[in-house]
Amino acid sequence: MFLYINWDGFSRHWYEKARTVGAGTPNLDRMIALGASLENHYCGIPAITNPMQQTLVSGAWPEKTGNCYAYFDKNTKKVVMTGRLNLCESIAEAALRRGLSCASVHGWYFENRGCVPGDASNPYIQNSLPNFETRVELLLSYLEGEAVPSGDVLVTIQKRPNFLSIYADDIDTVCHNGERLPYPQLQRAKTLDQWYENLVYTVQRMDKALGKLLELPDTTFALAADHGGMPYATAAFGVSREEARVPRGAELMEAIRSAGLDAYLLKSMHDTVPADAQALVMLMGTQAQLYYLQAPDAEIRKRVLKSIRSLAFIDRCLDEQQQQAYGSWKGFCDVYAVSRSPYFLGGVEVNEFLGGSHAGMEESIMHVFCAFYGKGIEQGLRVTHRTTLPQFAPTVCRLLSIDGPADAKGLILNEILEEK
Ligand SMILES: [Zn+2]
């Protein structure tokens, strides 16, 4: 059996913090010490859940999956949300195509994309459970032959699936620091220290539950993540709380205007854009997407980039070509700008609590955890060269001894295989 564990929002940085504090992370450490760890593994843009999860399961960047979370369609003049769109084959679909069986516990990326609610042979199993701990219990009871919820019915295991996945968003939920938190012991963070404490607590608690999974016999394990996170609107990295709590959207718009471009700031998803607008800006917390509506000349484009890049709160500002180097979809935007932590741009409400985001390009967002362990995996291998999300799916398929996924672009990580 192959078990794909997905920890949404698990930055490599959260692992480095959690492993050295208190009880540490013995099970993650074991995966690394006795398995293969991708030490420099990176996601693409936008570093948002749906686009990056679909990249993980299909081995292709948003440029191929078509999922970029949200974009402004210049033809219909409307904002389009891409939802769970994935134009590429998933690992589960590739496995089914080759006659293998699958199951997914809360792994929504396989729902009706290989695993089907109510289908006992390849079930999508879900029970609105709040955290990894409870989902691990659900997975184990499924493997032990108990009836588990799938769609509107209960299903019982017919035979051990060849490919099984489990998903949990505990870390991502703690990062966003909203009203819903995965464990009753947690309180919403008001300071950077509290936010890191919450992240460490959550990683260590998940590590404990992970230990139960690693006991499964005759199994190959992979633990991957879609993106990390960054704090904003809080005192951090030499910036005061007062300064960090000011939305920077107005300054961004002014910088674009001073470059000679009259851009319109979209107020909401359903806002109507003035017919004569030269350009449009969409803000989402820590990211901004700029669209040219009347093709400006090269000189203006250059000035816009220069003007945005000169802003102290901007971390990165990429033109279309530069975005493509991170796998972005061609219609994503003409200019992509992200703030550096702890600044934000706008489109979100700031309250007494710290803000957490991952729509950015900070190292703590882009550098994600990924490790393989168990049957067929090289022991104690640390892959230190740069690897990227699209390499995950074709490597998993190789370990399942099948080809695919059909649209995968990433290179198989042959070095982690025990049998080369
Ligand atoms: Zn996510």
Describe the structure.
It is a single chain. With 420 residues, this protein is α/β, with parallel strands linked by helices. It has 2 domains: 2-229 and 361-416, Alkaline Phosphatase, subunit A (3-Layer(aba) Sandwich), CATH 3.40.720.10; 241-353, 2-Layer Sandwich (Gyrase A, domain 2). Helix content is 29%, strand content 20%. The mean pLDDT is 97. The chain binds zinc ion (ZN). Zinc ion (ZN) is lined by residues 8-9, 49, 172, 226-227.
Blueprint (SSEs and pairs):
Layout: E1 2-7, H1 12-19, H2 26-34, E2 36-38, E3 41-42, H3 49-58, H4 62-65, E4 70-73, E5 78-81, H5 91-97, E6 102-105, E7 124-125, H6 132-143, E8 148-150, E9 153-155, E10 163-168, H7 170-176, H8 192-214, E11 220-224, E12 230-232, H9 241-244, H10 249-258, E13 263-265, E14 279-284, E15 287-292, H11 298-309, E16 314-319, H12 320-324, E17 335-339, E18 355-357, H13 363-366, E19 367-368, E20 370-374, E21 381-383, E22 387-388, H14 392-399
Parallel strand pairs: 1-10, 1-11, 2-21, 3-22, 6-7, 6-10, 13-14
Antiparallel strand pairs: 2-20, 3-19, 4-5, 8-9, 11-20, 12-18, 14-15, 15-17, 16-17
Helix pairs in contact: 1-8, 6-8, 7-8, 10-11
The chain binds zinc ion (ZN).
Zinc ion binds next to loops.
